[in-house]
Amino acid sequence: MGLTPVPADQLATVVTTLEMRERPPPRPIPPSRFRLQRWPAPAPDRYRGLFRRVGAPWLWYSRLAMADAALTAIVHDADVEVYAAVDPTGSEIGMLELDLRHTGACELSYVGLVPALAGHSHGRWLMAEALVRAWRPGITRVWVHTCTLDHPRALGFYRAQGFVAVRRTLETFPDPRVAGLLPPTCAPHVPMLAPPSSLDSAR
Q1: What are the tens digits of pLDDT across the range 126-184?
Q2: How far apart are alpha carbons 151 and 135 in whole angstroms?
Q3: Mind listing the pLDDT tens digit for each residue in 19-60?
C-alpha cells in the first residue's frame, strides 16, 4: 500500500461505473411540479450555463473545458439527447443528458438538479424520467458513473434505483478552479491547494 502524490493544481477522484442490464419493473413516476424540456440543439453558452449551475458544487468541468466546436459536435449529435428540467415559471433547474451513440447502450451522461433542490426527493422524479427515456427498444444496458467529488449520497442513490456497481477507476485532472473554469469559491469542501490562474475565474 502506498500514497501517490497529486500536484497542487490537480484533483484526484475515485470513479464508480454502475449499470442496469435489464429494464426495471414498471413504477409510477413520482409527481412533480417540474417537467423535462428537450433541447434539440443547444447553443454552447446556454448549455454551459445550465451545466455550471447544476454541477459547479461538485466540480463538473469537462464540458466547460471544451472548445465550442467539440461541445457542439456532442450535444448536436442525433444520438445525444439533452433535456432541461424546468419549474412552473420556465426557469431551468436541472439537466439530463442521454448518450445513445453506442449500439444497445444508453449512458446517463449527466443527470442533476441545482443544489437548492437537493434532499427534497426531486432526484427520484428526475431519475424516473431518465429511465423511461433510456429504456427504449434495442437498449440492453443503461449505465452511469459517479465519483467521490459528487454529492455524498449519489452512489447510494444510484444503487437504490437499481444500478449495480461494476467498475472502479482513479481519475486525476486539472482543478477547474485553478484553471479559471469555475470560481475559487466552488466546492469549499474540496481544498484548493494552488492559486487560481490569471484567467477570469468568474466565467
Answers
A1: 999 999 999 999 999 999 999 999 999 999 999 999 999 999 999 999 999 999 999 99
A2: 25
A3: 999 998 888 888 999 999 999 999 999 999 999 999 999 999
Q: What is the 3-state secondary structure (H, E, C) of the chain?
A: CCCCCCCCCEEEEEEEEEEECCCCCCCCCCCCCCEEEEECCCCHHHHHHHHHHHHHHHCCCHHHHCCHHHHHHHHCCCCEEEEEEECCCCCEEEEEEEECCCCCEEEEEEEEECHHHCCCCHHHHHHHHHHHHHCCCCCCEEEEEEECCCCCCHHHHHHHCCCEEEEEEEEEEECCCCCCCCCCCCCCCCCCCCCCCCCCCCC
CA 144, 51, 196: angle at the middle one, nearest 5?
A: 110
pTM summary value: 0.91
**Torsional sign, CA 114, 120, 122, 124:** positive
Name which CATH class applies to 10-25+32-174: alpha beta
Q: Which residue has the cell 469537462?
A: 62
